Amino acid sequence: MGKVKSSKNKTTELRLIDFFKLNKIIGWRRNYKLFGKPDFTFPKLKITVFVDGCFWHGHNCGRNLTPKQNGDYWSAKQTKNRERDLLVTSVLQEKGWEVIRIWECELKKDELLRGKLGFNAIDI
User: Fold this and answer.
1) How far, in whole angstroms, is CA 115 from its chain's centroid?
2) Separation CA 7–CA 14 (nearest Å)
3) N or C: which end of the chain has fewer CB within 10 A?
4) Which residues of 72-108 are buried (b: 16+ CB within 10 A; e: fewer)?
5) What local confidence, expressed as pLDDT, does residue 32 receive?
6) Nearest to 56 by CA among 79, 22, 26, 32
């Protein structure tokens, strides 16, 4: 399991792009140079969106299968990722950015996404 590498959330990001397009949400950017490397940024509104993988960030949603081998390593890695998430969120909020965090498992729940993002087919 030590050789398992993240694939830059490609599938999760593509799912959110589909959601944005379906709901006519515009104004977002990817790869916007900002602390913490948000997955999506709405620069005019100062909103950042992170899509956190359930496995990598230790979400307790039932999908998160922690490997039995080297469990201490994976537990420590997930803890470190959550601590970094808190730091990134804090720094961005201090700079006036709104930070939205979406769990990977939430990407299939359109109503929940609309609520979290606060967008209802509006032009941004």
Assistant:
1) 15
2) 12
3) N
4) eebeeebeeeeeebeebbeebeeeebebbbbbbbbbe
5) 94
6) 79
- Contact between 115 and 109 under an 8 Å Cβ cutoff? The reply is no
Q: At what angle do helices 110-117 and 10-22 cross, to 10 degrees?
A: 80
Is pLDDT at 107 greater than 90 in this prediction? no
User: Residue 124: its pLDDT value, please?
Assistant: 43
| CATH fold group of domain 10-117 | Endonuclease; Chain A (3.40.960)
Give the amino acid at 2: G
Residue 62 near residue 113, CB atoms below 8 Å: no
Which amino acid does the sequence have at 28? W
Give domain limits for the chain: 10-117
Beta strand pairing call for 98-103 and 40-42: unpaired
